[in-house]
C-alpha cells in the first residue's frame, strides 16, 4: 500500500483485505508492503496505521510471522519494518522458516522467504480407482427417465445432465485397481440393494 495515501483511504484498503479474509472463511496468507510500523512485527516504533491493523489482527485471530529482527526495508541508513506476513490460525501451522533475506534485491525492500508445508493427501485419494460401467444399464436408465419427462423438460440442459449423472452412478462400480471383474449377472439394481 502506498505510503502517500491518506488514513481514510488506507483504512478502506485494509478493510477490503480483512473483510475478504473474513467472508471467504478459508485459510489465508496476507503478505506485502503494508507501510505500517508496529511492535507486532518487530518495528522499534509504532504508528497510527498499525493500530488499525492490530484491531483486524485481533478480530480475525491472525498470526504475525515476522521474526528475526531484520528490517524489511532499507534505503541508505533508513531502515523500516513495513513488509508483513500474516496468516489465519490454521494456515500458520503450515508456514515455516520465515526470514528476511540479506541478499541484494535491487529494490529498497528485502526479499522475504518462507516455506509453505503442503498437507498430505489422504491415502484413499491417492489410490487409483477402477470404474466398471454397465453401458446397457446406463442406456436403459436414461431412456426410461427421458420417456417419463414432459416435452418441455426434455429440452432442459440441467434436467438431462442430472439424468445422465444419476444413470452413470447407478451403472458404475468403483474400486481400487486390481479388483475382480464384475460377474455377468451383476447390475445396478443389485448394487443399490446392497447399499
What does this structure look like?
This protein is an alpha+beta fold and 195 residues long. A three-stranded antiparallel sheet has the order 1-5-2. It is elongated, with a radius of gyration of 28 Å. It has helices at residues 7-24, 48-60, 89-92, 123-126, 135-147, 151-154, 157-171, 188-194, and strands spanning 29-33, 63-64, 73-75, 78-80, 83-87, 95-100, 112-116, 129-133, 172-176. The chain folds into two domains: 7-116, 4-Layer Sandwich (Deoxyribonuclease I, Chain A), CATH 3.60.10.10; 124-194, no CATH class.
Task: Please give the structural blueprint.
Layout: H1 7-24, E1 29-33, H2 48-60, E2 63-64, E3 73-75, E4 78-80, E5 83-87, H3 89-92, E6 95-100, E7 112-116, H4 123-126, E8 129-133, H5 135-147, H6 151-154, H7 157-171, E9 172-176, H8 188-194
Antiparallel strand pairs: 1-5, 2-5, 3-4, 6-7, 8-9
Helix pairs in contact: 1-2, 5-7
Number of strand elements: 9
Choose one word for the global shape.
Answer: elongated
Give, in order, the helices and strands. Answer: HEHEEEEHEEHEHHHEH
What is the fold named in CATH at topology level of the largest domain? Deoxyribonuclease I, Chain A
Domain Endonuclease/exonuclease/phosphatase: 12-113
Organism: Popillia japonica
Pfam families: Exo_endo_phos_2
Protein name: Endonuclease-reverse transcriptase
Amino acid at each position: 500500500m502506498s505510503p502517500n495515501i491518506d488514513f481514510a483511504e488506507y483504512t478502506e484498503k485494509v478493510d477490503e483485505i480483512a473483510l475478504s479474509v473474513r467472508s471467504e472463511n478459508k485459510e489465508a496468507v496476507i503478505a506485502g508492503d503494508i507501510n505500517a510500523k508496529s511492535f507486532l512485527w518487530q518495528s522499534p516504533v509504532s504508528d497510527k496505521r498499525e493500530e488499525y491493523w492490530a484491531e483486524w489482527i485481533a478480530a480475525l485471530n491472525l498470526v504475525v510471522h515476522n521474526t528475526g529482527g531484520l528490517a524489511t526495508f532499507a534505503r541508505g541508513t533508513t531502515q523500516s519494518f513495513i513488509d508483513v506476513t500474516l496468516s489465519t490460525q490454521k494456515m500458520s501451522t503450515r508456514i515455516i522458516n520465515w526470514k528476511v533475506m540479506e541478499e541484494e534485491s535491487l529494490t529498497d525492500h528485502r526479499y522475504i522467504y518462507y516455506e509453505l508445508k503442503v498437507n498430505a493427501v489422504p491415502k484413499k485419494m491417492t489410490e487409483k480407482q477402477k470404474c466398471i460401467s454397465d453401458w446397457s444399464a446406463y442406456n436403459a436408465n436414461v431412456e426410461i427417465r427421458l420417456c417419463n419427462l414432459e416435452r418441455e423438460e426434455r429440452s432442459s440442459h440441467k434436467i438431462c445432465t442430472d439424468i445422465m449423472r444419476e444413470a452413470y452412478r447407478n451403472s458404475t462400480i468403483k474400486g481400487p485397481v486390481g479388483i475382480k471383474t464384475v460377474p455377468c449377472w451383476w447390475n445396478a439394481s443389485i448394487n443399490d440393494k446392497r447399499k
